[in-house]
Amino acid sequence: MSRQRSDASVGALLAASLVLVAALSIGIGRTSGGPSFGFGDPAIAQAVLVEIRLPRTLLGLLVGGTLGLCGAALQGLLRNPLAEPGLLGASSGAAFGAVLVFYFGLSAADTLLLPAGAVAGSLAALGALYGLAGRTGSVVTIVLAGIAINALAAALTSLALNFAPSPYAALEILFWMLGSLADRSLAHVWLTLPLMIPGWALVASAARGLDALTLGEETAQSLGFPPQRTQWLVIGGTALAVGAAVAVTGVVGFVGLVVPHLLRPWVGQHPRRLLAPSFVAGAVLTLAADVAIRLMPPGPELKLGVVTALLGAPFFLHLIMRPRIVAG
């Protein structure tokens, strides 16, 4: 019962934090804040709410939740505390797909072609992963295939930057890759959901298999949870959901790495119990970082991916150095 009460307390705290940070995200703008949105005209205030702040808040919730959920699932699948959603190539594939749209000038024709190209890149990366690792590929093979896809996509992206038709195009590509929730609309939300929802469902359906894998692959197989099935549920779900997230925001790193580690002392080590809290905590962290960006002094807006990297990189180094500290 104490564990159930603890889980309920953590869930209530996370839910309250999400409501608070979502309210702040809707109520705080880049240059003014408060419930009046800094405007005297109710029509203008409503337009700012519906067309600017609400889409930004919803995407922060969806993208952060996706990164937290998939990070927890991948760490459970690979039994590696340093695993994160970019490991499988979905993020880099999506980034390359978006870069191609920029490179050929298609984004000027329709703003939604940019996220559509990123989604196509993510799906292509998933297809390449499946082709390289095979249906029954081991975890090591899957990770190596993901690293290879990441390297190839990064090289092709650098090639596109090198041959960009103009310095402005190269700068536009670079800024998009840094990750941001600014200047997004509800159309971006509706574009991501058809891929995110199936991705979440695939990852959630692997929860019991992930718990079984903590006992070893042979034990999981004997319990009726084939490791290969669990692997592809997590991998397919991650590729779909994370690819859709990158498609609309650019690359936002470290959320999926940091969130599961922050929650394990409170919810335990079992992957199944970590998935839902990681979704909520990922949304909270992403929205909080975006709110912090809007509270900074006037000037060029800092990119969300830069802020999450500044927060996550020291945490990543701490994870690497902790065994040495303990051993010392």
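^ that was protein a. below is b, sequence first then the tokens
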Amino acid sequence: MSAWAEAEGGRMRLVALAPDAGGKIRAGLQIEPKPGWITYWREPGNSGIPPQVTIAPASGVTLDAIGYPVPKHFFKDGIEDIAYDAPVTLPLSLMAGKGEIKIDASAFIGICKDICVPFQANLSLKLGRAMQSHPEEEAILAAADATLPKPPSDDFKVTAHAISPDRKTLSLTLALPGGGKGAPDIIVTGPSGYAFTKQSGGKRDGATFKTDMAIGKLPKDYDMSGKRWGVLVIDGDRAIETTLAFD
């Protein structure tokens, strides 16, 4: 684990395990907001700063993917935030080159209470290739993986989607787990920087749920053909994440 980097509203550090035989490194950006503060999901909502992680090319380590645990919705004074109000670890998938492994990472997040504070830190740590037990790091990364949304399943998935000709409404039909009540929380992510959450006409009929999502203003001359949008559906204590194809 790297040293903690401290800011007014919280702290963060890098956690990583030694690479496996194929050079893959399990890692995570561990963020701990102070009570009353939040930090943001990959699409923050009306405002805010999405997390950014950059690995120095000279380190010989590359970043393949960032995972995002299930966030919460916050509404205050007409502002919607998609964020975390408790400690969260963003899983990182890294790939190591040959030789000594030193991860030099730059992390940039937003952390907010009454005001938003940009928080940037340089985090570094060395990894050995020897197979050793690191129970604390392993526990942190395992807990982070458990907070990620799951892929769709037979009883929880998007069964149909369509966007209106004027591109103002996205219609969704979902299969939801049994026993739930009311509308699930749905976050649709379109072009980078765009998140849509406003539902209308939602109706739950047993395990089937149909709703229309209001689509805000899209980029000028945006072509839907061939695009893939993301959708996160949270229903009770279960969450799935998948993509919507527009052909």
